Queue: 4 jobs
Job 1
Amino acid sequence: MNRPLLPLALLAAALPTAGTAQTTPADPAAIPDIVVLGRGLDLPPGTPAYGTTIIGRDRLTGDASGRVEDVLSDVAGLAQFRRSDSRSANPSAQGITLRSLGGNATSRTLVLLDGIPIADPFFGYIPFNALSPERLSAVRVTRGGGTGAFGAGAVAGTIEFVSAGRADLPLVSGEAAYGSYNSQQIAATVSPDIGAGYVSLFGRYERSDGFQTTPVDERVAATVPAAYRDWTTGFRAVAPIDAQTELQASGTILRDDRVLRFAGATSSSDAEDASIRLIHRGDWQVDALAYVQARDFANKVVSATTFQLTLDQRHTPSTGIGGKLELRPPVGPDHVLRIGIDARRADGTLYEDAYGAAGAITARRTAGGETSTTGAFAEDDWTIGRLVLTGGGRVDRWTIDDGFFRQTTATGTPTITSAYPDRDGTIGTGRVGALLHAASAIDLRAAAYTGFRVPTLNELYRPFVVFPITTQANADLKLERLKGVEGGVDLQPARWLSLSLTGFYNRLEDAVANVTIGTNLRQRQNVDAIVAKGIEASVDLRRGAVSLTGSYAFDDSHVRATGLQSQLDGLAPAQSPRHAAGATLAWAPANGPSLSGTLRYVGAQYEDDLQTAILPPATVFDAVAGVPVGHGVSIVARAENLFDATVVTRNSGGSIDLGTPRTLWIGVRFGRVR
């Protein structure tokens, strides 16, 4: 894959030259009284009407695994396609969903970093290894369908990562840790002020000999641990242009290598992302951004009977480009009006070789295409005393173009040549909400929304094998469309205690599912709908050095299907637990040792659409302890799955994979906030 020079160009463009430094609040949901260098525009006052969960920097950098995807599990009901994290999952299975809307390796949740979508252009998965915790300030999770800017794709919710600002970043900081299975993690950040702005350079490397994901009774001579090695490096620069305007630029390079189950069953992914963003906070507020993604993925499939290479998905280059222009005109003190346009385009091609039992290539295949969305949006928040009304909509033009699948013999003789018709259309979506400050300690909220998602190139054109199941692609997939309503109450009976309760009903029409069509054979198909209803509850207690955060989700989710799919009607969607809960109890005095424990529970769920393979419930306990030793240096001990609970992550025709066993870490962390 070609290595773009855009990250270096953006760095040069973003070097600060003039302006006045500002401090940065720790909570991105707060509306500051001063201009904050390095942030986006303030959140409109109606944002809480849709319900949000905020995870702060201390929690992001304080998890036992050191990985943001595990921290996201604090939000009950949020799950990846499988229960594995990015050390032992296939990268293409790292899709995020909420509210048990069905297991799909593509992310049904819109994931943003500083307002920029980060999902893989071809597969739709989230490259979690590129999201180093030390470079982040907070993450905000909003369940339910989205609209507004970049609303396309937010059918299960929106996850917004916020980069660490100047006040979060020491001049020099870092961490090194050693853990079980000969595991190592090393990370460092250098964040000097340059003029009135700053630049932050970061790097992270980790590797491990890996743990055994295969149960003892299924291991053979070819079984190997899930070894991994990955690194990421990049920069973020913020440069004031004048007292109300600033330029932000970032670039990231990622390399990720993993081994899964058998010797030779390797996967690798590359990512090279760059973005530039202009923020103006005058009477006419402006948020303009552009980004580019250059990605690649490779995967080797090894037979579980012969233990020889059967499929080499050797190259999947893809490109994503996009941008947004949002304006906030001055329409009076009681209104916050947002209008704008945004666009995304993705293209990619799969190159793979199939091998026979004798080790010779039997077929060469290529497949790919292009998708795009271009939308215009408008949204207004109207404050009427204690009541805030919010509502907006968008109109999107979508396209699916140049789809193809070709197969040849090893010598190049064509055997299959398929070119799929181009498709396009226009779709409108919207949302409305109300937030009532009923009393000083009581907020009532209600919302209704619609959303949509265009199938990914992976779903449309790439088949895959997870022994012993083959899943076919489907170039005729329709768009997923969501309708939902919810209502909730937020309570703050004391300054140190917050409680939240939400009830919801979501209907995802034409949901893409892996549907069984034969023995060990599935195909991606649209089912009529997945209907999910349930409740979500959370608690946040912070009293002195003690804090307790917790959440619980009950999701009653069922498939609605007719015709040839009628056998699915009434069944639970694959990878959709009914119950999930998590809680973290922490003791962290301002100066001194700290200790935290995290308990997570996920209920039983089914691997497949026919409910023939169950994943049992699992409860995992993690712990972290830190002891400062002076001059910004701390010794940190971490324990993942301290009681060594068995977590089944895959049950495919009786072939089982297991999640992270007990893993112990010891390390050192250094750096002071300026």
Note: Residues 6-218+247-670 form a domain with the Maltoporin; Chain A fold (CATH 2.40.170.20).
Job 2
Amino acid sequence: MRHILALPLVALMLPAVAFAQDAAPPQTEPQIGPDIVVLGTGLPLPPGTPAYGSSIIDRERLTDEASDRVENVLKDVAGFQQFRRSDSRSANPSAQGVTLRALGGNASSRALVLLDGVPLADPFFGYIPFTALSGDRLSGVRITRGGGAGPFGAGAVAGTVELVSATRADLPNNSGSALYGSNDAMSVAGAVSPDLGDGYATLSGRFERGDGFFTTPDNQRVAATSRGRYRDWSAGLRAVAPIDAETEVQFRGLVFGDDRTLRFKGADSSSEGEDASIRLVHRGAWQVDALAYVQARNFTNKVISSTNFRLTLDQRNTPSTGTGGKIEIRPPISPNHVLRIGIDARIADGELFEDAYSTTTGLVTARRNAGGRTSTTGLFVEDDWTIGKLILTGGVRGDRWTISDGFFTERNAAGALAASSQRFADRDGAEATGRAGALFQASDAVALRVAGYTGFRLPTLNELYRPFVVFPVTTNANPDLGLEKLRGVEGGVDFTPATGVRIGVTAFYNRLEGAIANVTIGTNIRERRNVDAVVAKGVEITAGIVRGPIFFDASYAFSDSHVRDEGALDGFTPSQSPRHAASATLGWTPQQDWSLSGTVRYVGKQYEDDLETDVLPDALTVDAVVRVPVMKHLSLVGRAENVFDETVVTRNQAGSIDLGTPRTLWIGVRVN
């Protein structure tokens, strides 16, 4: 009952206040004043950016989250979700896909996630390596729902999440933290950020471990049941060097590793990666933003039978590589026109090596190897035209895509080739997409906006070629999958009735044609297939207020989402798609080193499967964070996750249940 009461309470609070994270001018790349450039950022955002609606998460919020997980901070924007409700400590890494607006979940990202302009998604799976991200390394995040054009726009069918690295102004010379938490958990992080000539560098690292909690309910535990143990680490280097007064080079390198145990002893998974990128930013009359990146990733996973608790599948190696880059040029047209012209490319290749085992003899029954390659190359043009109080914005993209070198090989224990082994025909094509929007400043207090967009996404190598098992359900890959294509419109109004107060309301309609879903085709058997469409329509409200040391942020999303298909799924709600989601944070910061805040999050009922047979009940959680200075440059930090120990169901397969994070307490220190 309290869940039902909480939702309208949050909704009633929204019109009274405004989203504090939107109180500042919406800048993805941090800037100070109109003429002062912050070293380490990209080019300024075009003036028409707010026409597409967006929400800003600032650095203070990123560094004051109870769980210290970036993915949980992103849930402040209602409608943001991963495939499952678990965070990166207790979910399978391959299930960390990101989507928006309840367009359905299948573990691959439907939203484009960028860090300093570089796509972060795993080249093989499409998931986001959230354990490699730390709020301390970021200056802010912009989340824009809806299809995107511009650089790397192929893939932004549900929206775009833009993360920006911390700049010199954000970074003390030395910083660090050490915390101890429930279930013998610990987290240690540190960074040094010296000036180097006229530039700077940041060397950072983080290590976390914990015995974890039982993801299995009490009444379903057996001798083989294990806590969700985790251990992850990451190390990053970012350097910024100016070449002249208008030009700079930015380098970023990242290495990370992640190990987890899920549900049963021996059900271990791991992911690791090495990423590097280099970016050139020129802010002269002819502005240029050019970057190139490379990613090397790997993933392993062991599947344990839920009946006899023996190893049934060892996905022992999944190496993949991602490469890409972009060049964007902004010629000096006129003060009222911002023209962007560019080209970008992404290439992903990878393969899997896995062994199937007999659960009776424990011997290998089959050895499988599968993989392939995908690519997109796009040309884009966007223009923002300011006409007094009206800003018109629009852009088009033309992409050539390829799916090639696909294969599946299976051999028995003796090495003989199975009849199912085959090579798949190469495919390619071209897609034209675009978007357009208008922003009208009706008065100092009211701004009106409208936008329309199209977009597309290639299936990932994982969806095309890798079957997976969440025992006892097997989900088959499908090498014949087609593209997902989005068409959408939205309109909204932003109110600023007083200083520090802002309210935003958006109504939207999105249609995702060819949506890739895990479709049930038999008892405990699913297959990835394109359904005719997923249609999502709804309303999003963001609001907040800043009054001296007190701030309040809130967000609510209502998403009416249904499958449109000629088969049995027609009219059903897509799996992993709640109708209601809400978040609210109340905080008090009386001075720089003092902080006290609490966050309430609500997620509505959703379905585990495509047939609406297994329900994930709604959940309401409360988190809290306090930071108190004890001496100069040293603060005491206390954090509490899920204060009231709410039961959060993250998986329900015919009554076999997994749970999310229970009440978890942390205590530690922060040096700054």
Note: Residues 2-13 form the longest helix (12 residues).
Job 3
Amino acid sequence: MSFYGWITIAAFLLCVIAMTRPLGGFLKRVLEGEKHILGLALGPVERGIYRIAGIRADKEQSWSQYALAVIAFKIVCFVAVYALLRLQGYLPFNPGGMQAVAPDLAYNTAISFLTNTNWQSYGGETTMSYLSQMLALTVQNFVSAAAGIAIAAAVIRGFARRGAAAIGNFWADLVRTTLYILLPICVVLTLFFVLEGVPQTLLGSITASTLEGAHQTIALGPVASQEAIKLLGTNGGGFFNVNSAHPFENPNALTNFVQMLAIFALGAGLTNMFGRMVGRERQGWAIFSAMAVLFLIGAGVAYWSEAHANPLIEALGVDPSAGNMEGKETRFGIVGSALFATVTTDASCGAVNAMHESFLPLGGMVPLVNMMLGEIIFGGVGSGLYGFLLFAIIAVFMAGLMVGRTPEYLGKKIEAREIKMTMLAVLCLPLVMLGFTALAVVVPEGLSALSASGPHGFTEALYAYTSAAANNGSAFSGLTANTFWNVTLGIGMMIGRFFVIIPILAIAGAMAAKKTAAPTPGTFPTDNGLFIALVTGVILIVGGLTFLPALALGPIVEHLAMLRGTLF
């Protein structure tokens, strides 16, 4: 560990804090249909889209209508992506001559990108044509991220409105988010990446001669544009197989820092949007503070772990101050890799600039725990905020039980229906993560895909299903996905997305219909340090009670075995 490393983490958090309020204000203006800086230039485009699509932006939907619109849109996306991947061998912009994607892989990839998971059971430069990368995958990066922000806006309206039957219009939210938020920022990010050396071309691969006289094929393509939305939309799907560890995706330390900021930008901004929309900005900062505390804990543990060398490597005479550089790029170093791993799994991004499987056991446990908690630490665009609100409901429910009062949040009573929907959304994730892991480590089809045995092999399986259910998409690189894994991971992705979306929209609908009660001396405040401590404790306790046995079988026992000289 070094002073420079801790300064890097602190500087990153300060930059996130500086972005939060301006982005929150802009997000609110866009999603509430208020005047904003881009409205004059892009307003005619928005209205044109409504006319062509037959959308009435002023006609709002109930929570069930909103949910049905989301599901219908996702079904169309699945069919379109699956068809494009299966037919890519016959379609243009395919200079590498890529053939049709196998049915199980096309199914897995289509679900992966429409759920904003971006799990990749393939190498991008060796499997996907340029058209598939652009029209299938990059388009889904935009609309899946936009759908997440739209759902978050609908949920916030549910908490902000009083006696209302509607929570917004999904189609209008989707268009506004894509047109005014994602596209403009991605144009700027794309130009920045191109300036830093990231390719953006439709030309085919080039052949280079090495110093030894051999020939090497170097893949190119429209990388910068996909890179921008992959990060801003917390998608994570890389153009190349090694993702942001590839120098064409992430050339230097500056792009690495900007990529991490892009991952957190909108998730942090949505906390401020929440405070503005409910009329109390302090509420948003309370949520931000709880997320920041959890982020610092994870980043600190990951950096501390990776700054130490493997004891067995130290025994060979290697300088322990060099830390664990296995699986990391020298241009990012220990802190740049540990911080990136923490950020990308705090958010449901899944982009990686180092191989998580090569982290030491406790360092690799940090990304795993981040995902197990539901990736609510700033989180994916939209999903992080509404996932956090589920834990906020549990926290105020527990506070109500302790003082003998009906729990309230933002002046609205939390009743049986809201608690049932909350528990359904919270419990579906460990059911998928632990249930499918248990299946995979006992059936031959599951075991055959693992590259390691013992606790490390168990962690490979646990990480994969945790990543799928949490809609993250990162993986331990030793896993070789086969048909069994592609099918079960696809199921896990769908459950992890839709079994959370539907209950949280139901909660939003119920909350929107309620009246707001005036605060009394017995009202539990939800914008101060006590609430921050309570909700942080609830998140850690719920996660600890649920996942500690599985962690004990994986990274914890692997760490103890490593100290005794055993590797897996």
Note: The two ends are 26 Å apart (CA to CA).
Job 4
Amino acid sequence: MAYPNLLREGRINRMRTKNRIITGPMERAMANRDGTLNQRYIDYLVERARGGAGLVNVESTYVDPRGQGNPFQVGCHDDRVIPGFTRLVDALHNEGAVVSVELYFAGRQSASTATLRQPLAPTAIPCSFFDPMPLPLEMTQADIDDVVRAFADAAARCLKAGVDMIHLHGSHGYLLEQFLSPWSNKRTDKYGGSAENRARFALEVVAAVRNVVGPDYPIGYRISMEEYVEGGLTTADTIPFCKLLVKAGINLIDITAGIYETGSEIFQGPERGHGGFVPIAEQLKKAVGDTVPVSVTQKLNDPDLAESVLADGRADFISMTRAFHADPHFVRKIEQDRAEDIVPCIACHTCLNLFFGRKVAHCAVNPQSTFERTRALRITERPRHVTVIGGGPAGMTAARLLARQGNSVELYEARPVLGGQLNQAALAAHDYGYFVSYLSRQMEKLHVDVKLGQTLDAATLADHDTDAIIIATGARGGYTYATTSGGRPVFNVISAFDRDITAWSGRVVIIGGDAESCFLAVRLGTARPDLRIDIVDPDSGFALNKAAPARNLLIAQVDALENVHLHPERTVEEVGDGFIRLQHRGVPETWNDVQDVVTGGRVSNVELYESLMEINPELEVYRIGDCIEPRDIHEGTQEAAEVVELIRLRSLERRAAPAEAGVGIR
């Protein structure tokens, strides 16, 4: 067995799990508006259980609508949620998994746009993550009693539905943590001041839940060991509190870190390393020993790393969240010694952007995630020969799905390597390279006929022996609108990524502040701290083509680099030899000692598609990805999945069409 520790049976109180991997409690904005579960949500979790997950954690589940964080979040606040939970539990048990529900109350991090109420909190400190920031109402003793009772009532509903375990969400800046933290709790009554007083509310909740479920029922507690704000919780505070949790009867402590104000720690991106919270989990494990099992989360989707964490005794369980969102069959694949076939989460924040945008949290690398029923693999009844032009993420995703359906697929890529612009992006955010590697391996495993360094013009392609054509030619660098003089070359964002990092010197000006330009600045500023990098944009903000909160996390990366400078509300009028001329609100400026200039932005490569349509508008041709409009990976892979299904349905239509209708059947 390649992963004996990950696949070893686990135990939490008297509950047994078939392995040491927990599906983390990721919110997905998939529940009904009243907090009840629906079939789409159940299908999603069942697929993870079918893929080998041993302990399936539902998500942050509100115990009272006043503590809700998202309009489409799961609730356990009313008896009407019980039938949905019962259906879910039965379905997951049928797949051999046990089920946990994470109960929480968001407190100062409640979204008034979801609750339509003023948030409740230990102290009236607003959360700066929200815009506008609702001012919380300081909780009275009656409010505290109500919330404690709400946790207990929710626990009773879980029992009635047959849920196997309860998690208490005491992390990420939610209410249990707000009382514990000296940063967010400024009370002077018995719930504030000393560490003992600040721990009181959480321990009251634990006691109330334990009183409902009895001594043998497993209760877990998720905790942010570090808040990463001045005056906030550190491991020096949380380790003693965890010892109190053990005495109170908690059966699993799940380690994470951060609050909304330090969201870059909660939602670590593609530029960060893996297993960032393992060191603090190890500290806790040493402190509590074998008195309670410890689980840890944060970018542990590399099974070799996760296995080593358990083998070294740094934790007892591994909690994976986005990893299961990207690949529901993560466990099954390592059981079958197929780790190389795991669809890798690349921490791109697509799910996060959609979730905070009140939309279902799709996945950029797996377009079937959250579409478990409607996009389930269907072997085609009549295989077709399909030609894909472009070997970026959209083109390779289409080729992968087509081949899995049983079609014959050929793929042409003009460059000598697959991956498209993800290869450039991986220079600034290395996780993106994992998706390129995965897709490239799948092309080989699925026998896609890949032709590198080859192109087909429209005339040749129009006469090509194929049933359908997918154009995924991506985008190219944008235009230089400024006047140029002196013969100095101007790079575009793509050629700038391709340039040798040692070739840059002195002062670099990037014209245009889109997300790709900001990524380039991160690449240059990180690798070459000796450079001065100025980004100029006529708008008042930067990376505006990227959705929040990922946009905010990217800008935070830029702001953290001392050699990168943002210049809003400016246009570049002339690029000369060693200088540029700008204007800022009508006032002219001249910057001298400029060694290199880059034009940001991208434009779609539409020429091949347009020429094909001109030659023969009857061809079965589809367009996906950046050649429609330059965007993120997510849109391209979603379009790939949609087009693959259209091709399958088209084959069925043609099979059913009578010959005299003139429909060509190959």
Note: The mean pLDDT is 95.
